[in-house]
């Protein structure tokens, strides 16, 4: 069962409160119908004020005009201040708090000041009229100031909510832009991998054609390399198409990566140089390799390199200079696993770290391309731990002979 919390597009609690306020004003006028000046005619004015109060939140200025007109009828009839005139104060509070412009509240305050003088002049009794005017003025002024304070706080809260909403939208936009940029970068790198494979296939095919009569065995080896490289390139092309299909348009250029050769495909053979750069930057890295490293497809090898690069970048950025980092590459029969754990006990970084993408977001995008998984989080003893698992192809291609 679903309970509706709104009615007529307004919160149910607010509507119930306004109905209760209007009912109290109307009952006040009805209860005093016999004793008050004007009798039932005055009661009719009070009930009309009560009905107008039902719309005090949505149309505060219009309600103020209606109640002011009814109060003027009361003054002209010389009925004097009556109990249901509390509706005037409620209306004044509402127009100051809910009015689109504060000048409506200021104008209502001026009208209320005139009403105070007229009410004081018609107040029966032995009290001097200016004493009554002072009393009515203090009450009316207090209501106006309270409403102004509530309005200020309300607008402040609304501005904070709007600012938070704007920041959230900006974060989402930045996240989408980062994802698009990282996918563009991945697609560019995969394109280079495929182009490299095509070049190898052409060279090996030409070699096989020339060696077919002279050395059939070597020609068969070259043809096998062509076949294996073609399968590998086809798989990389499938991943490339998948990345391009999901990628959104972005005008951002590729970020510069300190220490990366611009026109050379990176591989795991470049890891020692990468680790040396991070050691020079201040990290104390313990690098461990377990298992026998198989021949990885170039795209997967590049992904492992990028994951290591981003893991060390995060360690340098957040753990700081002098932090201890345990980096492990584990090769199993069906996957390669990258683990990086730091102790979080370094010093703040002075120079920027060599980054290859957009941190965890970029790593997750890259790992997802190869159907892998990424987990990251704080360690109980302090520091940060990251683990990326990348499944190996079921039928890996044999070693590719570079051109």
Automatic annotation (TrEMBL):
Keywords linked to the UniProt accession: ATP-binding, Kinase, Membrane, Nucleotide-binding, Phosphoprotein, Transferase, Transmembrane, Transmembrane helix, Two-component regulatory system
EC number: 2.7.13.3
GO molecular function: kinase activity
Key word Transcription regulation present: no
Domain of life: Bacteria
Domain (Histidine kinase/HSP90-like ATPase): residue spans on this chain: 299-396
PANTHER family tied to this protein: NITRATE/NITRITE SENSOR PROTEIN NARX-RELATED, NITRATE_NITRITE SENSOR PROTEIN NARQ
Protein known as: histidine kinase
Keyword Transferase: yes
Reactions it catalyzes: ATP + protein L-histidine = ADP + protein N-phospho-L-histidine
InterPro entries: DUF7134 (IPR055558), HATPase_C_sf (IPR036890), HATPase_dom (IPR003594), Sensor_HK_TwoCompSys (IPR050482), Sig_transdc_His_kin_sub3_dim/P (IPR011712)
Transmembrane segments: 12-32, 38-55, 60-76, 105-121, 127-150
SMART domains for this protein: HATPase_c
């Amino acid at each position: 069962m679903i309970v509706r919390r709104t009615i007529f597009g307004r919160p149910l609690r607010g509507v119930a409160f306004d109905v209760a306020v209007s009912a109290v004003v109307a009952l006040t006028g009805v209860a005093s119908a016999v004793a008050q000046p004007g009798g039932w005619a005055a009661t009719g004015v009070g009930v009309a004020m009560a009905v107008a109060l039902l719309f005090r939140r949505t149309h505060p200025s219009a309600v103020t005009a209606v109640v002011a007109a009814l109060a003027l009828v009361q003054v002209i009839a010389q009925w004097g201040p009556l109990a249901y005139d509390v509706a005037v104060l409620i209306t004044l509070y509402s127009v100051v708090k809910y009015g689109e412009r504060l000048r409506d509240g200021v104008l209502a305050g001026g009208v209320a000041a005139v009403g105070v003088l007229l009410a004081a002049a018609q107040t029966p009794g032995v009290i001097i009229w200016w004493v009554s005017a002072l009393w009515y003025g203090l009450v009316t002024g207090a209501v106006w100031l309270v409403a102004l304070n509530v309005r200020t706080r309300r607008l402040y809260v609304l501005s904070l909510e709007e600012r938070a909403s704007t920041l959230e939208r900006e974060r989402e936009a930045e996240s989408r832009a980062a994802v698009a940029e990282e996918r563009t970068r991945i697609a560019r790198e995969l394109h280079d991998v495929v182009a490299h494979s095509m070049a190898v296939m052409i060279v090996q095919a030409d070699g096989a054609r020339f060696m077919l009569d002279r050395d059939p065995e070597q020609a068969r080896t070259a043809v096998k390399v062509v076949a294996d490289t073609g399968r590998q390139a086809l798989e990389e092309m499938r991943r490339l198409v998948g990345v391009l299909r999901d990628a959104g348009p972005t005008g951002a250029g590729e970020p510069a990566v300190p220490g990366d050769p611009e026109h050379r495909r990176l591989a795991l053979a470049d890891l020692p140089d990468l680790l040396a750069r991070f050691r020079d930057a201040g990290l104390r890295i313990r690098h461990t390799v377990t298992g026998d490293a198989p021949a990885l497809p170039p795209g997967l090898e590049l992904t492992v390199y990028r994951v290591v690069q981003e893991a060390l970048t995060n360690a340098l950025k957040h753990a700081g200079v002098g932090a201890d980092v345990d980096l492990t590459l584990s090769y199993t029969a069906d996957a390669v696993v990258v683990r990086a754990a730091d102790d979080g006990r370094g010093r703040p970084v002075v120079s920027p770290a060599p980054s290859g993408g957009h941190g965890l977001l970029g790593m997750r995008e890259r790992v997802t391309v190869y159907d892998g998984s990424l987990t990251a989080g704080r360690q109980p003893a302090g520091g940060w731990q990251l683990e990326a698992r990348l499944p190996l192809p079921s039928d890996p291609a044999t070693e590719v002979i570079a051109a």
